[in-house]
Specification:
Oligomer: homodimer
Largest interface: A-B, 62 and 62 residues
Order of helices and strands of chain A: HHHHHHHHH
CATH topology of the domain at 54-183 in chain A: Tetracycline Repressor, domain 2
Number of helices of chain A: 9
CATH architecture of the domain at 54-183 in chain A: Orthogonal Bundle
Low-confidence stretches of chain A: 189-194
Shape of chain A: elongated
Mean pLDDT of chain A: 93
Helix content of chain A: 55-70%
Structural class of chain A: mainly alpha
Strand content of chain A: under 5%
CATH class of the domain at 54-183 in chain A: Mainly Alpha
Radius of gyration of chain A: 19 Å
Largest sheet of chain A: none
Distance between the termini of chain A: 49 Å
C-alpha cells in the first residue's frame, strides 16, 4: 500500500474507533506510519483526509448493500439478506456513527457523503419494496418509503443498542424483530417465529 | 439553581451537543459559570460529573417512556404514543448518542446507566406487547422481545438518519414505517396507510 492509501485506511479506522473529534492528525500519522510532511503532501489537512476516508466508507456501504439487493430470491429474501448481512455490530456503522460527531455535521462537505449514502440506501430499499408490492408479493397497503426508512433505522439503532448492551446479540434481535414485522405484510400466510 | 445543579445541567447539555470526548472540564466550567475549585468541590472530576449527568438523562428518558406506556388506550395506541412522543430529532438521543463515545463505552461505570436504560426500555415495551398478545389485541405470532428491540432501534436509528439528512422529517417517517408494520399484527383488519 502506498502512503496515500495508508493515510486513508488509517483515517477510516480511527474515525470508526474514535470519531472525528477524537482523531488527531498526530494519531493518523502514528497509525499510518506517515510523517507530517508526507501527510500534508497528500492532503490539505484533517478535513480533506477525513473526506477521502468517509467517501470510501460510504462507497463500501453502497457496494455491499447493492450486492444484497441484487442477490437472487424474492424481495423479502433480498431484504432479509441485506438486513442479516454480517456486520461488526459492536463497532457500530462506520458511516452512521459520524452523525454523532458535531464537527462532521457542522461541515457541509463532510456531511454530504453521509447524507447521500443514507438517501441512496433508503431510496434503493424503497424501490425494492415497491417492486414487491407491484408483483403482489407484498401487500398493497405497505408504504415503501416509510418502511424502507424504518428498516434502515433498525440497523442504525441496532448498532446503538448492541453497543449499549455490549452484545452483538441485541443487533441480531432487532433485525429479527424487523423481519418478523415485515413478514406480516407478505401476501402469503406470514411465516411467524416459532 | 445551586452550583452543583448548574454543573450537572451544563454537563448534560455539553454531552448532548459535543459528546464526552468533546466536553472538557474547562467547557463545563464556562457553561455553568462555576470555577475550577467549585467543580472539584462537588465532583471528583469529569467522569464523576458525567456519571451524574448521564444518570439524570437516563432517568428522564425512563420517566417519559413510562408516562406514554401508562397512558390510556389500547396497547397499539400506547406504543404509538411512545413512538410519536415529541423529540428533538436533530439533536439525537441524549442517552443513545453516548454509545458512540469510545471513552464512555470503555468505562464500565459510565456505560452501566446506558445499558440499564435500554434494557429497561426494551423489557418494558416487550411486556406491553405481550399484554396485547394475551388480550388478543395483537397476533399470537408476534415476538414481543424481538419486536420491542426493533421498535427501540427504529427510534435510535431514526435520530441517526434525521441527523444525516439534516431533517426531522426522516425521523417521523421511520416512526410511520414502524407503526405501519406493527399495524399488520393487530388482529382487526390493520389500518393501512392511505
Amino acid at each position: 500500500m502506498d502512503t496515500r492509501e495508508r493515510l486513508i485506511e488509517s483515517t477510516r479506522e480511527l474515525l470508526w474507533e474514535r470519531g472525528y473529534v477524537g482523531t488527531s492528525p498526530k494519531a493518523i500519522q502514528a497509525r499510518s506510519g506517515a510523517g507530517q510532511g508526507s501527510m500534508y503532501h497528500h492532503f490539505h489537512g484533517k478535513p480533506d483526509l477525513a473526506l477521502a476516508a468517509i467517501s470510501r466508507s460510504a462507497e463500501e456501504l453502497r457496494d455491499r448493500a447493492e450486492a444484497a439487493f441484487t442477490s437472487s430470491g424474492t424481495v423479502s429474501e433480498r431484504v432479509a439478506a441485506y438486513l442479516r448481512r454480517e456486520r461488526e455490530a459492536l463497532k457500530g456503522c462506520p458511516v452512521g456513527r459520524l452523525t454523532q460527531d458535531p464537527d462532521v455535521m457542522a461541515d457541509p462537505d463532510l456531511r454530504a457523503p453521509i447524507e447521500e449514502t443514507f438517501a441512496w440506501l433508503t431510496g434503493r430499499l424503497a424501490g425494492l419494496l415497491a417492486e414487491g408490492r407491484t408483483s403482489g408479493e407484498l401487500h398493497a397497503g405497505l408504504d415503501p418509503a416509510a418502511t424502507a426508512t424504518a428498516l434502515v433505522a433498525v440497523l442504525q439503532g441496532g448498532y446503538v443498542l448492541a453497543r449499549a448492551a455490549g452484545s452483538a446479540e441485541v443487533y441480531a434481535q432487532a433485525v429479527d424483530g424487523a423481519l418478523g414485522l415485515l413478514a406480516c405484510h407478505a401476501r402469503q400466510e406470514p411465516s411467524r417465529p416459532a
